[in-house]
Amino acid sequence: MPELAAKLTGLGFEGVELAVRPGYQVLPENVSTDLPKAAKLLEENGLKVASIAGEIDEVTINSCGQAGVGIIRICAAIDMGIGYLASVDSYRRRFDAVLPALERNGVAIGVQNHYGENIGSAAGLAHLLSDYDPKLVCAVLDMGHCAVDGEPVRMAVDIARPHLNGLVNFKSACHLRANGPELEAEYVVHWTTYDHGGYNWRELVSALHEAGFGGTFCMPAEYSTQAGTKGQRMGDDVIPFLSKDIAHLKALIDEIYV
Q1: CA 151 – CA 154 distance, rounded (Å)
Q2: Cβ atoms within 10 A of the Cβ of 11, count?
Q3: Global pTM exceeds 0.85
Q4: Which end of the chain has the lower number of beta carbons within 10 A, N or C?
Q5: Domains of the chain, with CATH numbers?
Protein backbone atom coordinates (compact mmCIF):
# COMPACT_ATOMS: atom_id res chain seq x y z
CA MET A 1 0.00 0.00 0.00
CA PRO A 2 2.76 2.58 0.70
CA GLU A 3 4.28 1.75 -2.70
CA LEU A 4 0.90 2.33 -4.37
CA ALA A 5 0.49 5.62 -2.52
CA ALA A 6 3.95 6.80 -3.57
CA LYS A 7 3.24 5.95 -7.19
CA LEU A 8 -0.08 7.79 -7.19
CA THR A 9 1.17 10.90 -5.43
CA GLY A 10 4.11 10.92 -7.83
CA LEU A 11 1.65 11.08 -10.71
CA GLY A 12 -0.11 14.05 -9.09
CA PHE A 13 -3.13 12.38 -7.50
CA GLU A 14 -4.59 13.59 -4.22
CA GLY A 15 -6.94 10.70 -3.55
CA VAL A 16 -7.95 7.21 -4.58
CA GLU A 17 -10.99 5.03 -5.06
CA LEU A 18 -10.41 1.62 -3.49
CA ALA A 19 -11.93 -1.48 -5.05
CA VAL A 20 -13.36 -3.71 -2.31
CA ARG A 21 -13.40 -6.85 -4.43
CA PRO A 22 -11.71 -10.25 -4.60
CA GLY A 23 -8.08 -9.90 -5.63
CA TYR A 24 -7.71 -6.27 -4.48
CA GLN A 25 -6.12 -4.69 -1.42
CA VAL A 26 -9.34 -4.81 0.62
CA LEU A 27 -11.37 -8.01 0.37
CA PRO A 28 -15.17 -7.90 0.89
CA GLU A 29 -15.03 -10.44 3.72
CA ASN A 30 -12.47 -8.29 5.58
CA VAL A 31 -13.96 -4.87 4.86
CA SER A 32 -14.85 -4.05 8.45
CA THR A 33 -11.24 -4.41 9.62
CA ASP A 34 -9.18 -3.68 6.52
CA LEU A 35 -10.95 -0.68 5.00
CA PRO A 36 -10.35 1.62 8.00
CA LYS A 37 -6.72 0.45 8.13
CA ALA A 38 -6.22 1.05 4.39
CA ALA A 39 -7.85 4.48 4.53
CA LYS A 40 -5.67 5.50 7.48
CA LEU A 41 -2.50 4.24 5.80
CA LEU A 42 -3.27 6.03 2.55
CA GLU A 43 -4.11 9.24 4.39
CA GLU A 44 -0.77 9.05 6.18
CA ASN A 45 0.81 8.89 2.73
CA GLY A 46 -1.04 11.91 1.37
CA LEU A 47 -4.08 10.28 -0.26
CA LYS A 48 -7.74 10.57 0.70
CA VAL A 49 -10.08 7.65 -0.02
CA ALA A 50 -12.97 9.52 -1.60
CA SER A 51 -14.92 6.42 -2.57
CA ILE A 52 -14.88 2.66 -2.81
CA ALA A 53 -16.22 0.34 -5.50
CA GLY A 54 -18.01 -2.36 -3.57
CA GLU A 55 -21.23 -3.84 -2.24
CA ILE A 56 -24.03 -1.82 -0.66
CA ASP A 57 -24.68 -4.07 2.33
CA GLU A 58 -24.78 -2.73 5.89
CA VAL A 59 -21.37 -4.14 6.82
CA THR A 60 -19.73 -2.23 3.97
CA ILE A 61 -21.71 0.92 4.72
CA ASN A 62 -20.74 0.79 8.40
CA SER A 63 -17.10 0.23 7.43
CA CYS A 64 -17.17 3.26 5.14
CA GLY A 65 -18.60 5.33 7.96
CA GLN A 66 -15.82 4.19 10.29
CA ALA A 67 -13.16 4.87 7.63
CA GLY A 68 -14.52 8.26 6.62
CA VAL A 69 -15.29 7.15 3.06
CA GLY A 70 -18.23 9.08 1.67
CA ILE A 71 -19.37 7.13 -1.40
CA ILE A 72 -19.82 3.50 -2.40
CA ARG A 73 -19.79 3.53 -6.19
CA ILE A 74 -21.79 0.93 -8.09
CA CYS A 75 -23.09 0.42 -11.62
CA ALA A 76 -26.70 -0.61 -12.22
CA ALA A 77 -26.92 -3.56 -14.58
CA ILE A 78 -30.27 -4.23 -16.21
CA ASP A 79 -31.54 -7.80 -15.96
CA MET A 80 -33.13 -8.31 -19.37
CA GLY A 81 -34.81 -11.42 -18.01
CA ILE A 82 -37.16 -9.13 -16.09
CA GLY A 83 -36.70 -5.95 -18.14
CA TYR A 84 -35.69 -2.36 -17.51
CA LEU A 85 -38.55 -1.14 -15.29
CA ALA A 86 -38.51 -4.20 -13.05
CA SER A 87 -34.73 -3.87 -12.71
CA VAL A 88 -35.10 -0.22 -11.67
CA ASP A 89 -37.71 -1.20 -9.09
CA SER A 90 -35.35 -3.87 -7.74
CA TYR A 91 -32.54 -1.33 -7.29
CA ARG A 92 -34.89 1.08 -5.54
CA ARG A 93 -35.92 -1.64 -3.08
CA ARG A 94 -32.25 -2.35 -2.37
CA PHE A 95 -31.56 1.34 -1.83
CA ASP A 96 -34.59 1.76 0.43
CA ALA A 97 -33.49 -1.13 2.63
CA VAL A 98 -30.17 0.53 3.51
CA LEU A 99 -31.24 4.19 3.75
CA PRO A 100 -31.10 4.17 7.58
CA ALA A 101 -27.54 2.76 7.53
CA LEU A 102 -26.47 5.33 4.92
CA GLU A 103 -27.89 8.21 6.94
CA ARG A 104 -26.44 6.91 10.20
CA ASN A 105 -22.95 6.65 8.70
CA GLY A 106 -22.92 9.74 6.48
CA VAL A 107 -22.36 7.54 3.43
CA ALA A 108 -23.97 7.67 -0.02
CA ILE A 109 -24.49 5.09 -2.73
CA GLY A 110 -23.09 6.54 -5.95
CA VAL A 111 -24.59 5.05 -9.11
CA GLN A 112 -22.34 5.41 -12.15
CA ASN A 113 -23.76 5.14 -15.64
CA HIS A 114 -22.24 2.43 -17.85
CA TYR A 115 -22.77 1.59 -21.52
CA GLY A 116 -24.38 -1.68 -22.59
CA GLU A 117 -27.21 -3.35 -20.66
CA ASN A 118 -26.89 -0.97 -17.73
CA ILE A 119 -28.21 2.42 -16.69
CA GLY A 120 -26.10 4.05 -19.39
CA SER A 121 -26.82 7.78 -19.47
CA ALA A 122 -27.44 10.82 -17.32
CA ALA A 123 -31.10 10.56 -18.30
CA GLY A 124 -31.15 6.98 -17.00
CA LEU A 125 -29.52 8.04 -13.74
CA ALA A 126 -32.09 10.81 -13.27
CA HIS A 127 -34.91 8.31 -13.76
CA LEU A 128 -33.44 5.80 -11.31
CA LEU A 129 -32.58 8.40 -8.65
CA SER A 130 -35.54 10.75 -9.01
CA ASP A 131 -36.92 10.21 -5.50
CA TYR A 132 -33.64 10.12 -3.55
CA ASP A 133 -31.72 12.67 -1.56
CA PRO A 134 -28.27 12.82 -3.24
CA LYS A 135 -26.70 12.84 0.21
CA LEU A 136 -27.84 9.21 0.43
CA VAL A 137 -28.16 7.92 -3.16
CA CYS A 138 -26.47 9.98 -5.84
CA ALA A 139 -25.24 10.00 -9.43
CA VAL A 140 -21.62 9.48 -10.48
CA LEU A 141 -21.57 10.95 -13.96
CA ASP A 142 -19.21 9.24 -16.42
CA MET A 143 -19.11 11.10 -19.74
CA GLY A 144 -17.03 8.33 -21.35
CA HIS A 145 -20.07 6.07 -21.14
CA CYS A 146 -22.48 8.90 -22.01
CA ALA A 147 -20.47 9.64 -25.15
CA VAL A 148 -20.59 6.01 -26.26
CA ASP A 149 -24.37 6.17 -25.81
CA GLY A 150 -24.56 9.47 -27.71
CA GLU A 151 -25.47 11.91 -24.90
CA PRO A 152 -23.95 15.41 -25.28
CA VAL A 153 -21.84 16.93 -22.51
CA ARG A 154 -23.82 19.99 -21.46
CA MET A 155 -27.12 18.16 -21.55
CA ALA A 156 -25.70 15.28 -19.51
CA VAL A 157 -24.33 17.65 -16.85
CA ASP A 158 -27.61 19.56 -16.71
CA ILE A 159 -29.60 16.34 -16.29
CA ALA A 160 -27.26 14.86 -13.68
CA ARG A 161 -26.58 18.05 -11.70
CA PRO A 162 -29.46 17.74 -9.17
CA HIS A 163 -28.34 14.20 -8.37
CA LEU A 164 -24.57 14.77 -7.98
CA ASN A 165 -22.84 14.48 -4.63
CA GLY A 166 -19.21 15.32 -5.25
CA LEU A 167 -17.88 12.59 -7.56
CA VAL A 168 -17.50 12.66 -11.37
CA ASN A 169 -15.48 10.28 -13.55
CA PHE A 170 -13.03 11.34 -16.26
CA LYS A 171 -12.16 8.74 -18.88
CA SER A 172 -12.58 8.50 -22.64
CA ALA A 173 -13.99 5.95 -25.07
CA CYS A 174 -14.94 5.59 -28.70
CA HIS A 175 -16.35 2.90 -30.98
CA LEU A 176 -13.82 1.06 -33.15
CA ARG A 177 -14.52 -1.50 -35.83
CA ALA A 178 -13.39 -4.95 -34.72
CA ASN A 179 -13.44 -6.78 -38.05
CA GLY A 180 -12.57 -6.27 -41.71
CA PRO A 181 -14.59 -4.38 -44.34
CA GLU A 182 -15.54 -7.57 -46.16
CA LEU A 183 -17.60 -8.73 -43.14
CA GLU A 184 -20.77 -7.43 -41.54
CA ALA A 185 -19.54 -4.63 -39.28
CA GLU A 186 -18.85 -5.34 -35.61
CA TYR A 187 -17.76 -2.62 -33.20
CA VAL A 188 -16.13 -2.61 -29.78
CA VAL A 189 -15.82 0.17 -27.20
CA HIS A 190 -12.19 1.31 -27.00
CA TRP A 191 -10.93 3.12 -23.88
CA THR A 192 -8.36 5.75 -24.72
CA THR A 193 -6.78 9.09 -23.77
CA TYR A 194 -8.60 12.41 -23.58
CA ASP A 195 -7.72 13.45 -27.14
CA HIS A 196 -9.17 10.37 -28.85
CA GLY A 197 -12.45 9.88 -27.00
CA GLY A 198 -16.02 10.69 -27.89
CA TYR A 199 -16.35 13.94 -25.90
CA ASN A 200 -14.30 17.02 -25.07
CA TRP A 201 -12.78 17.20 -21.58
CA ARG A 202 -12.59 21.00 -21.68
CA GLU A 203 -16.31 21.15 -22.34
CA LEU A 204 -17.01 18.82 -19.42
CA VAL A 205 -14.83 20.77 -16.96
CA SER A 206 -16.46 24.02 -18.13
CA ALA A 207 -19.98 22.60 -17.78
CA LEU A 208 -19.23 21.27 -14.29
CA HIS A 209 -17.79 24.64 -13.25
CA GLU A 210 -20.84 26.47 -14.60
CA ALA A 211 -23.08 24.02 -12.70
CA GLY A 212 -21.26 24.79 -9.45
CA PHE A 213 -19.65 21.38 -9.10
CA GLY A 214 -16.82 21.41 -6.56
CA GLY A 215 -16.22 17.77 -5.79
CA THR A 216 -13.78 15.02 -6.75
CA PHE A 217 -12.55 14.46 -10.31
CA CYS A 218 -11.98 10.70 -10.43
CA MET A 219 -9.80 9.07 -13.11
CA PRO A 220 -10.52 5.31 -13.37
CA ALA A 221 -7.35 4.71 -15.48
CA GLU A 222 -9.24 2.55 -17.96
CA TYR A 223 -7.36 2.03 -21.22
CA SER A 224 -7.82 -0.66 -23.84
CA THR A 225 -5.04 -2.70 -25.36
CA GLN A 226 -4.59 -2.95 -29.13
CA ALA A 227 -7.27 -1.20 -31.18
CA GLY A 228 -10.27 -3.38 -31.96
CA THR A 229 -9.73 -5.79 -29.06
CA LYS A 230 -11.56 -6.07 -25.73
CA GLY A 231 -8.50 -6.36 -23.48
CA GLN A 232 -7.65 -3.77 -20.83
CA ARG A 233 -4.21 -2.45 -19.89
CA MET A 234 -3.32 -3.24 -16.31
CA GLY A 235 -0.70 -2.22 -13.74
CA ASP A 236 2.15 -0.01 -14.87
CA ASP A 237 1.02 -0.34 -18.51
CA VAL A 238 -1.51 2.43 -17.87
CA ILE A 239 1.02 4.96 -16.53
CA PRO A 240 2.05 6.67 -19.81
CA PHE A 241 -1.62 7.18 -20.74
CA LEU A 242 -2.68 8.16 -17.23
CA SER A 243 0.19 10.65 -16.93
CA LYS A 244 -0.94 12.35 -20.14
CA ASP A 245 -4.56 12.49 -19.01
CA ILE A 246 -3.97 13.79 -15.50
CA ALA A 247 -1.65 16.53 -16.78
CA HIS A 248 -4.34 17.64 -19.21
CA LEU A 249 -7.11 17.51 -16.59
CA LYS A 250 -5.10 19.44 -14.01
CA ALA A 251 -4.29 22.12 -16.60
CA LEU A 252 -7.99 22.45 -17.43
CA ILE A 253 -8.96 22.71 -13.77
CA ASP A 254 -6.27 25.33 -13.13
CA GLU A 255 -7.49 27.34 -16.11
CA ILE A 256 -11.26 27.03 -15.65
CA TYR A 257 -11.65 26.81 -11.87
CA VAL A 258 -10.18 30.25 -11.11
Answers
A1: 9
A2: 15
A3: yes
A4: C
A5: 70-170+199-222 (3.20.20.150)
